[in-house]
Amino acid sequence: MKKAIIIVGMGQGLSMGMAIKFGKEGYLIGMISRSEDKLRNYQQTLDTLGIQSFYSKADVGDEYQLEEALVSLVKQTGEVAVLFYNAVDYRYKNILEESIEDLTKGFKISVANVLTALRSLLPQLTKSKGAVLLTGGGSANFPSPEMASISLGKAGIKNLAYQLNAVLKDKSIFVGTVTVSGGINPESAKYSPEKIAEVFWDLYKKRDQVEVVY
């Protein structure tokens, strides 16, 4: 039976790069995002590459929708070996102009609902001795006041990765993050989705460090 990777925050950039990489390695792909039209297009793209995929629509900022989507995907994919969390509150707004409400909502999308996804998939990940992979960013180390929510979110992801790695070792579940230090661009020699997906794959297979700064 094939194992599956569940991608929370599916998009045409890094998430698609991860879907293609893991799909070519023999994994089933489960995808979650807000737009069913886009999810359908992603599925068609993967189909042309011979990669089997499934999707479920959800607002990642809503833990109840996210939970329902995950339950649905597990029924479709079977054994889940990897949770890839790539959702982020991608807004350019100065910290002094941010509202508490928006920052709180952004933190939920970027960080807190990692726990929602993890708790939902924990039985699967425990059984498969799987992994949780989190997309980090350079703004965790070099925060920008013009990217307040993004910077706080990536700082949270880095911190969360170390915490979860420590507490899930006893269950033989690996948790790791790649801190992407540049802008993801398909034309970039270093920061293309394909290149970053290879870094994630290497981290996943080796399981020898919590964080790769790339």
How do you describe this structure in short?
48% of the residues lie in helices and 18% in strands. It is an alpha/beta fold. The chain has a single domain, classed as NAD(P)-binding Rossmann-like Domain (Rossmann fold).
Explained architecture:
The structure is a single chain. By secondary structure, the chain is an alpha/beta fold. The chain has a single domain, classed as NAD(P)-binding Rossmann-like Domain (Rossmann fold, 3-Layer(aba) Sandwich), CATH 3.40.50.720. 48% of the residues lie in helices and 18% in strands. It has a 7-stranded parallel beta sheet with strand order 3-2-1-4-5-6-7, sandwiched between helices. Helix 1 crosses helix 6. It is globular. The chain starts with a strand and ends with a strand. The model has no long low-confidence stretch (mean pLDDT 97).
Q: Which properties best describe this structure?
A:
single chain, Rossmann fold, alpha/beta, 6 helices, 214 residues, seven-stranded parallel β-sheet
